[in-house]
């Protein structure tokens, strides 16, 4: 989940709190995929909407996850994890101002916990005093790891894990633009700029891509292939009929031993090539994934886990547990870290048993099945406080007894897909369509985006103009990419921050038009104004008009 949540349907899942199962023999492969994204909020407000989103996500998810993954590697645990970090998130994690203000944020959290500790101790409330001490100690440990262990370089910490093959890093669209609703030039610009940004900031050459919101439209695979990307992820609901790949048919005609039957749309245990391309897609396993994200029966709703929505009215810190997911916030019991840790261990064991049972039910493993689960990374640690511990338990257990943890790139190298499939247009959002992003409340935004994209044609005349106009042209491209972020229509539709999102979109649209005007008519005296635009919105330094020109 992103820090502002999702609105997907969750039903039909098994209750892990009441089901017991044996552990069948493990076989096949297992791919754990986390996708991480935040909109561009650098310098764009603080609490409740703005840059504090990223500070919360660093402290709640990115930093604890990085500590866990490095600890597991240091302990010799042979885990594999696939992690998508959107290019706009990478830009912010690497930004010096964001890093500095995160340190201030962490210090503030430590100070608040200290004040609570003194307040509760004075009141004789020993239970809450111990919880304040627990919070202060945890944040202090994370703050020190950020500064000393990782040198305030979270991006470098994740890239280091990729260099030892423990983590596969995915790229994505530059600003998480909702690709099926954008024009063709913008789609290519989002993906090309995103790929270059991931390469520049991590030093890694990504092969996999996370399509924002798992949103697909026919032809996207051709753009991915032209950029050298080899695989992406999809929702099982978008799967269509499969057919044997042509090389399989040739092998059959020549008497070869390969014999791959036609599969149906329910087969989610094998990647497949999409359309006529060489690009492969992995479908997430709905039932196994649902044990985590199901709103009704998923693990995060367990009564022992820390309640996200109730905060202390003075410090804003969280001292309560879920207690009863259907109860009001006033009836919450105090949090017990030990009991929550025990539930996290039990749920990790339950999840691994479910994975093994699912793979065993598949039968023979000669055809190299791989079970893929995908989650928003911010669910772990931020929304679900104990989720990082749960991840650690799952990865330790799988690395010791299977199924074999793999990254999608590893699996494709060892087992190239032998089938092709057509995907239907859609997403992993509500009803598997585009309605979460385009609807009556957001149609105006998409109409304006179409106008902005059309105006980009004017930049063709500034190719040989002076330095200032060329800088302004590059700034116009940045503003267009930022305006195209899927976050703005999402936040409007879900009513989570509609005014903020609309204001942010309009701001980028206005800055685009001003940058475009400077690109066409600017003079030396306009340099201070252009500098202000660049300082406000400065990601993607290598983006420019070439990214939005016709092929």
Overall CATH class of the largest domain:
Alpha Beta
Order of helices and strands: EHEHHHHEHEHEEHEEHHEHEHEHHHHH
Q: What is the CATH superfamily of the largest domain? A: Glycoside hydrolase 38, N terminal domain
Approximately how much beta-strand content do the residues carry?
Answer: 5-15%
Q: What is the average of the pLDDT values? A: 89
Q: In this structure, how is the largest beta sheet organized?
A: 6 strands, parallel
Q: Which structural class do the helices and strands define?
A: alpha/beta
Q: Tally the helices: what do you get?
A: 17
Determine the fraction of residues in helical runs and give it as a percent range: 40-55%
Report the span from N to C terminus. Answer: 36 Å
Envelope shape:
globular
CA-atom Rg in angstroms: 24 Å
Total number of distinct structural domains = 2
Q: Which residues form runs of ≥5 with pLDDT under 50?
A: 1-25, 246-265
Let me know the number of strands.
11
From the 3D coordinates, which CATH architecture of the largest domain would you assign? Answer: Alpha-Beta Barrel
CATH topology of the largest domain: 7-stranded beta/alpha barrel
